[in-house]
Amino acid sequence: MRNLFQRNWYTEVRRSEDGLLKGKTSYIDTYREAVAHLSVDINSFIIQEALWEEQRSSEPINARTLQVTPLCGSKAYFSSGPVLKEAGAFLKDPLAVALFSETVKGIIQAETFLLSERGFASEKDYEHKWMEFYSGSCRYFSSLDRITKTWFDHVGESKREGNLFVRFKTQSLFHLGKSRYLLTGNLSDSFHEVNVRLKLNGVAVEEADGVLLRTPDLVCREAAALLTNLHGINLRGVAKKELAGLLGKGQGCVHVIDLVNDCAQILELFGIGQKTFS
């Protein structure tokens, strides 16, 4: 087994002393290194500043830092997809969309520790909002009649200072010989730990499994069994919407879906299906 390619993501959201949240996602892979930064108002989540840093690329470039003006004034919250695409077009780099998207996700997760700033009267008020908004969207919120733990039972408390949320993700591609490959994906953050493993014959899935090591409730872990639905699927170029359908949609886990999609992207990035290895 030979490692061919790997990539790593690190998202961090911190409370600063100037009434802002500082969020960033650092990314490094075999060919590239970049960081997306967002500074947002702690009450409104309106983006005050957006920066794109690029340190290394397979293309000959100088290290650079750019102001991403299309993002300023927009909200770092749900439904930010269109403005994130504008940022990608502004920078002429699809990776920027992914990194700023991860940063927005981190800011949304950090809301757990910003109840008063975000206008919530209590932990129960926050949980009720999410139960209404997210109803039917994942295994946890589709199984509220079966869960044994509330969100704050899992989190522990709603008080954090300084560092509010962190997330690590990594994906690796291994060559197993001839036209067979192994893709692995791992996620560990302030609330979850998830792992997926995909064994491929060419670009078709031979085996797929995974485990959810740390989750808001035991019911979430049932979503791992849905990975067997990927058997026989051509993974190269598959749309995320199709992956979500195969992995259960609202009965699945959004983090499992994201990890499988991250792994599938590597086939495009590394050219599997076009290259051969001895």
TrEMBL record:
Domain of life: Bacteria
InterPro entries for this protein: DUF2889
Name recorded for this polypeptide: DUF2889 domain-containing protein
Organism (species): Desulfosporosinus metallidurans
